[in-house]
Amino acid sequence: MAIKRRMRVSMEDVFPHGAFLTTDGAEPVRDFDRSTREKFVQQTDTISGLPLWEVGVHDPDPEARKSERSVTVKIAADVQPVPPEALPGLPFRPVEFEGLEVTPYLDSNGVRPRIAFSLRATGMHAPGGRRHGGNKVSEAVAS
């Protein structure tokens, strides 16, 4: 069977109602196996070898369970991804992810085990706008 561990999906498959960043920017993911109390080591993507960054995301899907509305997306990128601008007068940052992939896993932390998904991307940008961060070099926005 040719099903890979990670499956490529579209933004619309995962976030049909859009997505909003809940963090101000991308933070480096700590490699707990290689880091010590004194020395932080950033985790790298097992396939690409690129450093991993993470952002908190809110899914506004009205049918999503409360526990499914807040997720983390890890971004494999050479440089720290730049988040899109917030909406004028609001703290919300609408976002779309590039190269989105899901990895299913068994979450046995609750009363009953369930299938859960981790999310990875190669970049992020404003919906319908110019791409920011990820593996691409951010372009200066002309005024």
Summary tags:
143 residues, mainly beta, eight-stranded mixed sheet, 11 strands, 3% helix
Task: Give a nutshell description of this structure.
Residues 123-143 are annotated as: Disordered. The chain is mainly β and 143 residues long. The protein has one helix at residues 11-14, and strands at 7-8, 20-21, 27-28, 52-58, 70-76, 93-94, 96-98, 101-107, 114-121, 123-125, 131-132.
Task: Give a written overview of the molecule.
This is Plasmid replication, integration and excision activator. Mean pLDDT is 86; it is low at 131-143. The chain has one helix at 11-14, and strands at 7-8, 20-21, 27-28, 52-58, 70-76, 93-94, 96-98, 101-107, 114-121, 123-125, 131-132. By secondary structure, it is mostly beta strands. It has one domain (7-132). The strands form two sheets. Strands 1, 2, 3, 4, 5, 6, 8 and 9 form an eight-stranded mixed beta sheet that branches. A three-stranded antiparallel beta sheet has the order 7-10-11, with no helix packed on it. The chain is built from one helix and eleven strands, in the order βαββββββββββ. The longest helix is centred in the N-terminal third of the chain and has 4 residues, at 11-14. 23% of the residues are buried.
